[in-house]
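Suppose you are handed a protein chain with no further information: no name, no annotation, nothing but its sequence. What can you learn? This example shows the usual starting point.
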Amino acid sequence: MIRPFDDLFVPDGDEARRWAEEELSDPRYADAKPTWFDLVARDIGRFIADLFTSDNGANVGPWALIIVSAVIVAALITALIIWGRPRSSRAVRRARADLLGEQDDRSAAQLRADAERSARGGDWDTATVLRYRAIARGLLERDLIDPAPGATAQSIAREASAVFADEAAAMRRAAVSFDDVRYLRHPATEESYRDLAATDERLRTRRLEAVPA
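A reasonable first move is to predict its three-dimensional structure. Written in structure tokens, the prediction is:
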């Protein structure tokens, strides 16, 4: 007769500890751990709950509870504002990684300066491409548009037109100039570049409150 536990292996203390360490080293356990923010939020929640219990509420009085609650809410809002900024900055950096189908992390000012440098050399094609990128980058830096990954010149022009309605025709021309040079290999001219640069200058100095209703 075979007993069911004859083949059962019972590890000694060292072996059992090693197995436990290997199991707990699995990444899924690390992912399941609460973050520091979770722990702080939990402690704050418990503190507020304790304050509003009948015993504590009677001891400290209603006005003290209101003041303490207001201070805690203000602290949470401040924390969200402070720690929300890096996430926004990372989003901007991700947006900068790809701009109109090309990896380019130059700022709008840098793109604008490089475009003008190409224009002074008579390279209107390069100047046109860089100047339109400067328009797109400037709108991104000001959080006026939020293009999807791989956005085209035309889609950026439509987003910009939704913000600056009176510049819709100029933005369409600018997008066409970019596409003509970048994809259709049509040579740019000084006139088309100057029109594009003028659009960029107007948008660069425009404030939202100055946009006609």
